[in-house]
Amino acid sequence: MRTPGFWYGSGGAAGAALGWALAPLGALYGLAGRLRMAAGQPERAAAPVLCVGNLVAGGAGKTPACIAVAEALRARGIAPVFLTRGHGGRERGPLAVDLGIHDSAAVGDEALLLAAHGPCWVARDRAAGARAAIAAGASVLVMDDGFQNPGLAKDLSLIVVDGAVGFGNGHLIPAGPLREPVARGLARAGAVVVLGDDRAGVERRVAGALPVLHARLEPVEEARALAGRTVLAFAGIGRPAKFFATLEALGAHVVERVAFADHHPYRPEEVMALIDRANALGALPVTTVKDAVRLPESLRALVRAVPVRAVWQDPTALDRLLAPLLTGLPTGVPNG
After folding, report:
1. Separation of alpha carbons 194 and 181, rounded Å
2. For residue 246, how far is the Cα from the chain centroid?
3. What is the pTM (predicted TM-score) of this model?
C-alpha cells in the first residue's frame, strides 16, 4: 500500500481530522492485535532469536538495520542466519533462499537483500522457519520484522524508528501508521534504534525506559558518484521521500520524483516509461536496491541502484546488548 501522507502530519487540519475520524477503526485493529498476541504460547527456539522490528507499517529501515546487526555479530565471531516472512513472495517456506534460483516474486525483495549478506530462510510460520534454520546449522537467528508475530519467542527485540517521523500521528492503522500502541510495543522491546537525526523526539518519548541506539543510513562509497548528476528518482518503499532526500544529500540534482506503493511489482512497460522519461530529461534513472530486485531482469542494467548501509553511532552500545545472549555460542559459518 502507498503510505498516506496524513499518517505523518501532511494534509494540515484536514489530515488530522481524517486521522481522528478513522480512530475507531484503529481501535478495532488494536483489539485484533491484542487478541492475536494473547492466543497461544510463543515457541522457544533452540537458538537465540534477535528480532529487528518496528511499531509502524513499513519505511522505518528494518532491513538495513538487520544487516548491520548481522555484521556486528560476525565481528564477534558469530555467524548469524536471517529469518524473514518473505513479504510479497509466493513461497510460504520454510525455504532457504538461493540467489541463483529465487527472485522477488518467489521470496520477496527483503529476502533477496538479506541473502546477499548471509544465509536467509523464508517462512510464513516463523517458528517452523526457526526450526528449519537451526536444523540446518544456525546458531543464532536475526529476524527481519515479526515483532508483532506471536508464534516465535524473541530473546532480544530492537525497535527501529525513523528519526525524521517517529511514530507518526500516534494513531493505529488505518488512522495512522502504528501496528500497536507505542507503550505496549516498547514494553516488549529490549532497545530502540533511531535511524537518522531524531527530529521527532523519539529518545525523549522513550524517556529512559529502554536503551536508545543511534544509527544513520549512509550511501556506500560508489553512490557518491551521483554528486552533481541529474537524476530521475523512483521508489516503491515505505517512505519514498527518504530516498529522494538521500539523493539530494549526495548532491544529485533530482529533476523528477516518482513514488510507488511499498513492494510495488514493476511491469516492464512502466519501467521502460521511466527510462524513456529520464532520457528525455537528460537524466539518469535511479532507484533503491530494494526496488532494483523487483525490476524486470532485462531492464536492471538500465537503472542505477543506490545502496545504503546502516552505520552505528556507538557500536559498543550494540555490543553490550548482544553480549549476554551470545555467551557460549559456537563460531563459524553455518551450512544453512
Report:
1. 18
2. 16
3. 0.88
Q: What is the pLDDT of residues 3-61, one digit of tens each?
A: 787 888 767 788 788 888 888 998 898 898 888 888 778 999 999 999 999 999 877 88
Strands 120-122 and 95-96: antiparallel
Residue 250 and residue 222 in contact, taking contact as beta carbons nearer than 8 Å:
no
Q: Which of 316, 254, 334, 310 is nearest to 287 (CA)?
A: 254
CA angle 321, 325, 328 (to 5 degrees): 135
Write out pLDDT tens, residues 234-289.
999 888 988 999 999 999 999 999 999 888 999 999 999 999 999 999 999 999 99
At 335 the pLDDT is 42
d(CA 62, CA 143): 10
Distances (CA, A) of 196 to 32, 102, 147, 163, 266: 32, 32, 21, 5, 29
Strands 212-219, 308-312: parallel, antiparallel or unpaired by DSSP?
antiparallel
| Ordered DSSP codes for 137-159 | T-SSEEEES-TT--SB--SEEEE
Question: Does residue 77 come out as left (phi exceeding 0), alpha (psi in the -120 to 50 range) or beta?
Answer: left
Residue of 271, 241, 267, 272 lying closest to 254 (CA atoms):
241
Using CA atoms, how far apart are residues 53 and 63, in angstroms rounded to an integer?
A: 9
